[in-house]
Amino acid sequence: ELKTPLTSIIGFSDLIDKLEKVEDIRNCNGYIRKESVKLLQMVEELLQSSLKGEEAWRVQLQRTDLTAVLADSLRILEPTLQKSSITTVLQAEPCEAYLDPARTQQVIFNVIDNAIKHSKCTHLTLMLDTAAAHAGTCLLRIADNGQGMSEADAAQLFLPEEDKPLRPVTVNSHGLGLLLSKQLMELQGGDIAVSSRLGEGTVVELTFRTDRPPAPVLLQN
Question: Which residues form the Histidine kinase domain (predicted)?
Answer without folding.
Answer: 1-212
